[in-house]
Request: fold
Amino acid sequence: MKAVLCTRYGPPEVLQIGEVARPFPKKKEICIRIFATVVTASDCIIRAGFRLSFPYRMIGRLAIGITAPRQPILGMVMAGQIESVGADVSSFKPGDRVFGMGGFHFGCYAESVCWPEDAVLAVVPANLSYEEAAAIPYGGLLATHFLTKVGLRAGQRVLIYGASGAIGTSAVQLASHIGAEVTGVCSSTNLELVRSLGATAVIDYTSENFVDRKDRYDIIFDAVGQQKSRAAMLESARALSPNGKRISVDSGMPRLRRQALLVLRQLCESGVLRPVIDRRYPLDQIDMAHRYVDQGHKRGNVVVTLS
Reply:
């Protein structure tokens, strides 16, 4: 089968299309024919070899591979159709349309992947295409994890820094649904997008520093990570209300749960949560997709399609 191989760390050009053996499910596994995947910021950080500050670079390489990823097929998110199931699988059947996130197991930059039956996987929302479904798990699951971790409640004032990215667009919608008063921070080109997702106020970070306002927030959520947000977050405590909390996507390893994905599925079907897709690329242009995500200005998700 066709797959994208990353046999060394480096720029997008290290990603090469190749042929690999098609996987077959073990007793408790399912084999999924992938129709859409997503290039995430995490994918790009891994492909580049964790160009982060020490010790995060070493921790990343120890976990994923010292000189190259141990699993050369990257990609942690997918939407597709089940091709076959193992003898002991009872939750899914061939023909089911599914979507999910496999985390650091990777393997989604390929025509097929095998996942355990108990993976973070669910039936595709009835009102979404494969491409739209693939745009939900990464941002939706991470936003759910961190907003839950910080205990966001109805009536609280929350500021989401990086509100137009994959995690940010999900966080704005989820926080608004909870009943929080949402302020989104993004660039001028994305202000209307963030408003349309449920933000009651928006701040253009290119012309204004949110800490200089008189507004105070119960929660400040950094949805882009300290590699990009460090300067903006240095004085963010000044914008917190008494007993306010700050949290970042870099605040520990998120726990991915199927139950959270099932909730996201329901929210999509009810129209509360909608996918945000910036660009679409075919699999053989995945290097271009990585190059675009590397620029750091994508709106929502960059989807890669497989025919």
